[in-house]
Write a structure and sequence with these properties.
The complex is a heterodimer of chains A (about 270) and B (about 220).
Chain A (H helix, E strand, L loop, with lengths): L19 E11 L2 E12 L3 E5 L6 H8 L7 E6 L2 E5 L6 H13 E4 L11 H11 L5 H14 L15 H13 L5 E5 L7 H16 L3 E5 L3 H7 L2 E6 L2 E6 L1 H4 L6 H11 L1
Helix pairs in contact in A: 3-4, 3-5, 4-5, 5-6
Chain B lengths: L1 H42 L2 H16 L2 H11 L9 H26 L3 H9 L4 H31 L11 H12 L2 H33 L2
Chain lengths: ~270, ~220
Amino acid sequence: MSHEQLHAGGGPHAHGGVCQIRAENIHKRFGPLEVLKGVSLTVNRGEVVVIMGPSGSGKTTLIRCLNLLEEPDQGKVMVCNLDVTSGEKPPSRTRSNTIRQLRVKAAMVFQSFNLYPHMTALGNTIEGPMQVLGMGREEATRVGEALLKKVGLSDKRDEHPSRLSGGQKQRVAIARALAMSPEVVLFDEPTSALDPELHEEVLQTMRQLAGEGMTMIVVTHEVAFAREVADRVVFMADGVVVEEGPPGEVLVNPKHPRTRSFLRLVEH
Amino acid sequence: MLELLQRAAPFLLQALWTTLWIGVVSFVLSLLVGLLVAVARMYGPWLLRAPAAVFVSVIRGTPLLTQILLVYYGLPQLGVTIEAIPAVILTLALHAGAYTSEDIRGGIQSVDRGQWEAGYSSGMTFAQVMRRIILPQAIQTITPSLGNRFITMIKETSLASVVTVVELTRVAEQIGSATFRYMQMFVIVAVIYWAVNSLLSLGQAKLEERMRRAYR
């Protein structure tokens, strides 16, 4: 079987400057519903950006577009030196290669974890490195064990997901994302499917990651987390970015009425 | 009866062997056919999807016996002559493959969409996600119906008797006509089929039990 090497050796500082994650003028429509109406977002290396907004504002679609799980109708997604433009050229082989390379650099953590139920915690973390990066089992296992240790789940190494709590599952999912040595980790409402008492262990892991300088884009309703960890908060409503800035401004002194009414709701 | 059984035993054993290997080979091939047809129908381009759908419809809408006769007696008229056993295996594989493709399709569809997304989001190709993530989970759902298909297959090999293949049913017919003891011979052969399939059912139950426990 072909182990396609996707770890394009560009590294963080390829493309002349610092690795940026960028969405330019993203449009996305589901049937009659225009979910994203020309959204642009730039995230610098090491930055933690929290995207907030009411449901239906397009924040999840935006983050899915950054990993090309959702193909924009129009616009450009850039991760470091890789860029994919939608809406013009017909799909080609090189294009789908670029998409896969880009996905390696922009790892995804899902609301519903999406762990592979037929694999152990370790199996989940080493699958990507072995299949996609062409890493040998030994090396992948070393990496996977280190990451499980990092998220505090060394003792769950050989458990299948059905034996793990929601919080543990999400931490394995984070380890799985990190195993690809991504440039950015995209979190799509990582705590929304969890019981309240399990939020903290996941948020703690994310705080730790942020502290290590990982670039993160997080869709969440956790205002406290945003206030504490985010470098920047982006507020979306009705498919556009209505406000963005440091959490101290956007969360404390929101200018836009939509931001104000939303924050009143989530903060009680 | 005992004396008849004694005399028939070597022939029955030989025929049982023929039945089993035709059944096993056809079954394995039918899995391949089923997987290809299922994937073609679900993910293929229109040019592949349409013929695959027609194939399934035709196979399911016509009797297996007709199909065997068509392949063995019909095709030579078009210059395609296939020996009896390969003709039977081919027909059985295609026939069962059409049914299996529906099972496989259902199994693949039963896997959560998030599994595809998890695989794709880590940079895997379609084939990698399919092979490593989706099929292993689909197989769990499909196993019970595949077990039933295998048992059906063993029984359907009896149709090979009409195109001169000397398998269990044919042997019963031959010995029956030589000794005028049709009743005994067919009862013996029926018991053999039943014993084989009971063993298979047992194995199937064990396999399902093991798969149920596998992810726990």
